[in-house]
């Protein structure tokens, strides 16, 4: 069990004395999140979330801290827990509690039991809005805390994996409140997933393994927006990229983007670095690990640690030794070795610092406006997965462009009329 400090009533953080260090990082990140800062100032003036109880299960990073800061400025009462035990920044957690008044339940490196006690802690405040990243809060509510359902007006979901889970609940008829999936927003997945995850995954691999990408063969499993971002950045650094896909459309796109496509059983023999980014389980199995080159580096960039058969690797290995922080070398019965990064958890969150604030400005600005939208429209929304209003996406994108010194073109009256008519032909 990890060390834990319980301060006041109801919080779980490692050390309150880390708050000054965390606050300086939060303030620095805020300088790279101008759209969210504009929303925070607006929320502080209007208080659209006054008295609203919000529970979040999120990566406890400086960017998340600035989201919490914005929600509190809007009048919300916020409780937050970690969505991954290795992504929590303990100094940031301390600062969120001390400086923004949120109840925080997050300790880096905690065990599974403590992780779920943190989830329970966030839910102990009887939330009205759920802000999820991976659907752990949502799943816990529907499995174990159904008593909370009556008071919840809606929720949002940050990541692809969580959206899949919520759509499954909707199909099963078990979803108990309306959800607006942040991950469906263009201002989220086109940028955060592609540019943010693409960069933080490479960053995590470099920090954990200190490997040269140039001349290496990198295998990426999954060619969604995250996989595309990883492939693009690895290719740009000189790696030869192989894509593993189950979707023929995405696989074809990868081929036309210049990458080789093959099944994992074949790719396993060629790769030097392996990254899973599928949102599914058993992507790299023990059979795949057994046939990899000795010294192959294996990591995961999907939300849950089930994409790589870590349990099978540990069971089959004849030896294991840490070779660097966040890197463990496993010796297989054949004598070959495999290097696993971040114990199979999100490598960009666990071995690096997650997506930069510049791109999270888009995601969390959209998130803040979605929460305001839920608060204002919950009465008319049914328990289902609802689309993100395009007006919110456009607002965030335009503000981000302005903050970067760019303006878009406008349409003339004649252009508007042309686009909305059918009479004009050849």
From TrEMBL:
<keyword id="KW-0378">Hydrolase</keyword>
<feature type="binding site">
    <location>
        <position position="61"/>
    </location>
    <ligand>
        <name>substrate</name>
    </ligand>
</feature>
<feature type="binding site">
    <location>
        <position position="192"/>
    </location>
    <ligand>
        <name>substrate</name>
    </ligand>
</feature>
<dbReference type="GO" id="GO:0005829">
    <property type="term" value="C:cytosol"/>
</dbReference>
<keyword id="KW-0520">NAD</keyword>
<dbReference type="GO" id="GO:0033353">
    <property type="term" value="P:S-adenosylmethionine cycle"/>
</dbReference>
<dbReference type="InterPro" id="IPR020082">
    <property type="entry name" value="S-Ado-L-homoCys_hydrolase_CS"/>
</dbReference>
<feature type="binding site">
    <location>
        <begin position="159"/>
        <end position="161"/>
    </location>
    <ligand>
        <name>NAD(+)</name>
    </ligand>
</feature>
<dbReference type="InterPro" id="IPR000043">
    <property type="entry name" value="Adenosylhomocysteinase-like"/>
</dbReference>
<keyword id="KW-0963">Cytoplasm</keyword>
<feature type="domain" description="S-adenosyl-L-homocysteine hydrolase NAD binding">
    <location>
        <begin position="193"/>
        <end position="354"/>
    </location>
</feature>
<dbReference type="GO" id="GO:0071269">
    <property type="term" value="P:L-homocysteine biosynthetic process"/>
</dbReference>
<comment type="pathway">
    <text>Amino-acid biosynthesis; L-homocysteine biosynthesis; L-homocysteine from S-adenosyl-L-homocysteine: step 1/1.</text>
</comment>
<feature type="binding site">
    <location>
        <position position="188"/>
    </location>
    <ligand>
        <name>substrate</name>
    </ligand>
</feature>
<dbReference type="Pfam" id="PF00670">
    <property type="entry name" value="AdoHcyase_NAD"/>
</dbReference>
<comment type="function">
    <text>May play a key role in the regulation of the intracellular concentration of adenosylhomocysteine.</text>
</comment>
<feature type="binding site">
    <location>
        <position position="193"/>
    </location>
    <ligand>
        <name>NAD(+)</name>
    </ligand>
</feature>
<feature type="binding site">
    <location>
        <begin position="222"/>
        <end position="227"/>
    </location>
    <ligand>
        <name>NAD(+)</name>
    </ligand>
</feature>
<dbReference type="InterPro" id="IPR042172">
    <property type="entry name" value="Adenosylhomocyst_ase-like_sf"/>
</dbReference>
<feature type="binding site">
    <location>
        <begin position="301"/>
        <end position="303"/>
    </location>
    <ligand>
        <name>NAD(+)</name>
    </ligand>
</feature>
<feature type="binding site">
    <location>
        <position position="280"/>
    </location>
    <ligand>
        <name>NAD(+)</name>
    </ligand>
</feature>
<protein>
    <recommendedName>
        <fullName>Adenosylhomocysteinase</fullName>
        <ecNumber>3.13.2.1</ecNumber>
    </recommendedName>
</protein>
<feature type="binding site">
    <location>
        <position position="245"/>
    </location>
    <ligand>
        <name>NAD(+)</name>
    </ligand>
</feature>
<comment type="similarity">
    <text>Belongs to the adenosylhomocysteinase family.</text>
</comment>
<dbReference type="GO" id="GO:0006730">
    <property type="term" value="P:one-carbon metabolic process"/>
</dbReference>
<feature type="binding site">
    <location>
        <begin position="224"/>
        <end position="229"/>
    </location>
    <ligand>
        <name>NAD(+)</name>
    </ligand>
</feature>
<feature type="binding site">
    <location>
        <position position="133"/>
    </location>
    <ligand>
        <name>substrate</name>
    </ligand>
</feature>
<dbReference type="InterPro" id="IPR036291">
    <property type="entry name" value="NAD(P)-bd_dom_sf"/>
</dbReference>
<dbReference type="GO" id="GO:0004013">
    <property type="term" value="F:adenosylhomocysteinase activity"/>
</dbReference>
<dbReference type="Pfam" id="PF05221">
    <property type="entry name" value="AdoHcyase"/>
</dbReference>
<keyword id="KW-0554">One-carbon metabolism</keyword>
<dbReference type="InterPro" id="IPR015878">
    <property type="entry name" value="Ado_hCys_hydrolase_NAD-bd"/>
</dbReference>
């Amino acid at each position: 069990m990890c060390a834990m400090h319980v301060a006041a009533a109801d919080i779980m953080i490692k050390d309150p004395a880390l708050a000054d260090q965390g606050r300086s990082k939060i303030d620095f990140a805020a300088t790279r999140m101008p759209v969210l800062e504009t929303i925070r100032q607006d929320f502080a003036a209007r208080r659209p979330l006054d008295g609203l109880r919000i529970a979040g299960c999120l990566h406890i990073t400086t960017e998340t801290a600035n989201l919490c800061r914005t929600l509190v400025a809007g009048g919300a009462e916020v409780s937050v827990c970690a969505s991954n035990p290795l992504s929590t920044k303990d100094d940031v957690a301390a600062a969120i509690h001390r400086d923004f008044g949120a109840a925080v339940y997050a300790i880096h490196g905690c065990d599974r039991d403590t992780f779920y006690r943190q989830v329970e802690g966030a839910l102990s405040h009887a939330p009205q809005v759920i802000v999820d990243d991976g659907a752990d809060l949502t799943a816990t509510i529907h499995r174990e805390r159904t008593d909370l359902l009556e008071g919840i007006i809606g929720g949002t979901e940050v990541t692809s994996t969580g959206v899949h889970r919520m759509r499954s609940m909707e199909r099963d008829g078990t979803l108990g409140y309306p959800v607006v999936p942040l991950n469906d927003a263009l201002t989220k997945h086109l940028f955060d997933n592609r540019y943010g995850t693409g960069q933080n995954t490479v960053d995590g691999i470099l920090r954990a393994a200190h490997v040269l990408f140039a001349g290496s063969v990198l295998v990426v499993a999954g060619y969604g927006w995250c996989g595309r971002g990883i492939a693009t950045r690895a290719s740009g650094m000189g790696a030869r990229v192989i894509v593993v896909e189950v979707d023929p459309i995405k696989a074809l796109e990868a081929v036309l983007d210049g990458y080789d496509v093959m099944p994992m059983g074949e790719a396993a023999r060629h790769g030097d670095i392996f990254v899973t980014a599928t949102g599914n389980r058993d992507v790299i199995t023990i059979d795949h690990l057994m046939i990899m080159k000795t010294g192959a580096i294996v990591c995961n960039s999907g939300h849950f640690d089930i994409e790589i058969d870590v349990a099978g690797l540990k069971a089959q290995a004849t030896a294991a030794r840490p070779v660097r922080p966040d890197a463990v070398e496993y010796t297989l019965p054949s004598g070959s070795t495999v290097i696993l990064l971040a114990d199979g958890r999100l490598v960009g969150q666990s071995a690096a610092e997650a997506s930069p604030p510049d791109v999270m400005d888009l995601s969390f600005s959209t998130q803040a406006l979605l929460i305001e939208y839920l608060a204002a429209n919950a009465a008319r929304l049914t328990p289902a997965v609802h689309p993100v209003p395009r007006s919110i996406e456009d607002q965030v994108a335009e503000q981000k462009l302005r903050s970067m010194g760019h303006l878009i073109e406008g349409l003339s009256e004649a252009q508007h009329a042309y686009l909305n008519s059918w009479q004009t032909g050849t």
